[in-house]
């Protein structure tokens, strides 16, 4: 962890994201905290706890500005304050255009291969520009030094790096894109492609999860922007700024905080089965996601149907417990995803359920990290069947939760995590029958093989943890800062 501070001693660190790490809700007159279902927050929060600084995010809870000090600066986490959370409040119009509209009906389907048509509206774009400017103003207002390290997160803020660069030319701007980057043909659908590219190229460093996404980005720049690309060093020079474009596969805290309070795995097995009425002694698979159409939730339910059809010996002896947090529900595509999944679960349950037993239990509810970890520790199999996913931290959290070195991970080949977790059973979620077979294989796997695979995956995640991720980016940033100082001294 010390690399965070050692590499950039004295540097002011700021994180910018749409999603805030702690949502403050008002319940029965009391302020209650919720930790959001967000890979981005899972990854960045331990970093901020370790190195301190300011996190600027969109305030989304029902306990709004009036509940805290007038500048809306909160010290978090509440139990051991380590950094400042500065929340920005958005009007309904801003929220509709910037978040639901441009970010989630435009950029999200543009970047994920899930066959949902991206929708681009000029009015959404206007709000996206305005909200990016609002966050840029907040960065300038919060910055105490001329050269802070600004960590810009995700597709909500493609324009922010350039806006900040223009006003804080000495800042080190590290932008991380948490979702895939499409190929140039797909990217060309976006009516504001040049603005998006040149906005991102205000960054000192631009990170993606995989080399493949870096190549897609460089190819998009090559096609649509006047620039010099040095493919050998993976840099782009546009105007008078240079951006290093590199893969930094994101990860999780090791050991995760949520593990500390967990009972032994066999107690988790019992308590989860008791809670959901799953017969003791039968096998359990779990799925944990947001209700997003990229996650392939209905597809995995069909795979359960296929498993039970091909291997009827599992009827009555296996359950898939799927928890899914409702998300972005104002958008039709998300409401339809939930209906489609519920319909698929009901069909499989109707066909195979008997004597009070059902193969699929679907819980459409947000779960706090500790509860998710108990589910992971109770499971024989964790099923991640994303149709497309930048990384997928659920897969890494499952591995981190299993300090008993047991459990099988079934993982989509279209999640970035499949590059690193090669001992998982890798599946194509479009191939329902093979996904059913992978489930059968996972449920029948001998203990020694489960242990060997889990040990190797744990080794990988424990070494390539979130501090390693941040450390590599900050090391690259420190090198750039030193090189720039040398260049200045030569001039
Ligand atoms: O990790 C990708 C991501 O889109 C994050 O940006 C985001 O925090 C998370 O998924 C959940 O989405 P949302 O913040 O829109 O609920």
From TrEMBL:
Superkingdom, natural source: Bacteria
Keyword tags: Membrane, Transmembrane, Transmembrane helix
Which GO molecular function, any one, fits this protein according to its record?
alpha,alpha-trehalose-phosphate synthase (UDP-forming) activity
Q: Would you kindly state one Gene Ontology biological process term found in this protein's UniProt entry?
A: trehalose biosynthetic process
Q: Which family does it belong to?
A: Belongs to the glycosyltransferase 20 family.
Record's protein name: Alpha,alpha-trehalose-phosphate synthase
Q: Which organism is it from?
A: Paramagnetospirillum caucaseum
Q: What lineage is this protein's organism placed in?
A: Bacteria, Pseudomonadati, Pseudomonadota, Alphaproteobacteria, Rhodospirillales
Full-protein positions shown: 242 to 732 of 744
